[in-house]
Amino acid sequence: xxxxxxxxxxxxxxxxIDVVFELIIFFVVTLVETQKKxxxxxxxxxxxxxxxxxxxxxxxxxxxxIAKNGRISMGNVTLLPDxxxxxxxxxxxxxxxxxxxxRADFATEHTHVKKVMDACTSAGIWKLSxxxxxEDKTHERKRLSKMRK
Amino acid sequence: MxxxxxxxxxxxxxxxIDVVFELIIFFVVTIKQEDLxxxxxxxxxxxxxxxxxxSDEVTCNIELGxxxxxxxxxxxxxxxxxxxRPELDSCLRDIARTSTKTPIIxxxxxxxxxxALVDVLDICYKHKLYSVSVFTL
Lengths: 149, 137
What we know:
The complex is a heterodimer of chains A (about 150) and B (about 140). The mean pLDDT of chain A is about 80. Chain A contains 4 helices and 6 strands; from the N terminus they run αββββαβαβα. With about 150 residues, chain A is α/β, with parallel strands linked by helices. Chain A is elongated. In chain A, about 40% of the residues lie in helices and about 15% in strands. Helix content of chain B is about 40%, strand content about 25%. Chain B contains 4 helices and 6 strands, in the order αβαβββαβαβ. Chain B has a 5-stranded mixed β-sheet with strand order 4-3-2-5-6, with helices on one face. In chain B, helix 3 runs parallel beside helix 4. The termini of chain B are far apart.
């Protein structure tokens, strides 16, 4: 079983490449998993709005999620309206005027949306945007939209 | 089991190609095309300015409510009567024909579903009526 000393000793790259690819897969998969948002939210259709692309939405923006039961969250962390207000005014001091995107479920009662809007308004942001689905590309939503009717 | 020293040592590409194909299959299977999202901008009315601006201009008031059965469709009230989405669509088209700067005021009831608000906003955007404010009743 002993190896003979090679004439021209070379490092065998194959297992290393295998491991590197394995690592790439691991990190890509885990990164997708940690894209934080409230997954339960189902957004209403709105084909006529401004299309959100990385160009139209600046990096300095805020996205607030509101679930069907009224849970308000940012990055899947549940927050109270007061905390939203504090965060918005902190960001306003840093960035100036910035867009706030409200991602609310279609069945959310307006009270919960109002809480968020009031929090933003009292922090000095008057322009708010609601997120809607422009083009439905996932098939899961079609099933859910049938349930909606 | 010992390796023979090669005459012309070369990297064997076969396993690498195998792995790359495996990766391609993996990503093709797992990739999910993301929905294309849009945003509908609204203004929150400033408490002081809302009274002065509404007195001298023609505004369009739309109210939103909820059905008693609690359906997520919601009720849209325009000109003191319930309208369906196609009706509101034609009403707003007429308004937009006069002036696209007409301020639209949406008064949403506390219990109205968010779907109704987004639907109305979408119709406003369809007719390029962008000065929309949202009140809460």
